[in-house]
Amino acid sequence: MDMNMRNKFAQQYANNYVETAASEATPHKLVEMLYDGLIKHLTLSKVFIEQKKYEQKSEHINKSLAILNSLRDGVDLEKGGEVAENLYGLYDYCYRKMIEVSAKNDTVIIDEVVEHIKALNEAWKAMPEEIKRSSKDQIERESA
């Protein structure tokens, strides 16, 4: 089996693993996966800007924007009150900053966005275990 075929199979395996993990994950774990993926794509965006590989930079910025959009869309402004509004505002700010990065190729801005997301990720991972294990149905029943 040639290297190209191996890479193709490895990528298919990785895609299937992520799909399976996402389909079986709790809401908490899904957000954690989004934060981890966002940090990865932000970091790769920075690397490709530094290497002047703008096609790859654009690919990872677009993935970062898609994740930020998903996070922003997942915020329940009706039930979440002030915390939800602040979180939505931070996601929106990071989204706008990444649009700026795309235009200016400014790695300092990426560093700022990464710091915001890392702080959120750390706080998210520090939640109590009973919240981390809650299903979507349990969360909806408790917030009703």
Automatic annotation (TrEMBL):
Coiled-coil stretches are: none
InterPro entries tied to this protein? FliS (IPR003713), FliS_sf (IPR036584)
The reply on keyword Cytoplasm is: yes
User: Cytoplasm: present as a keyword of the record?
Assistant: yes
Tell me which PANTHER family the record gives.
Answer: FLAGELLAR SECRETION CHAPERONE FLIS
BP term (GO), one:
bacterial-type flagellum assembly
NCBIfam families in UniProt: fliS
- What is the taxonomic lineage of the source species? Bacteria, Pseudomonadati, Pseudomonadota, Gammaproteobacteria, Thiotrichales
Protein name, UniProt field: Flagellar secretion chaperone FliS
Which CDD domains does the UniProt entry name for this protein? FliS
Localization of this protein: Cytoplasm, Cytosol
GO CC entries? cytosol
Superkingdom per UniProt? Bacteria
Q: Which UniProt keywords apply?
A: Bacterial flagellum biogenesis, Cell projection, Chaperone, Cilium, Cytoplasm, Flagellum
Which family does the UniProt entry place this protein in? Belongs to the FliS family.
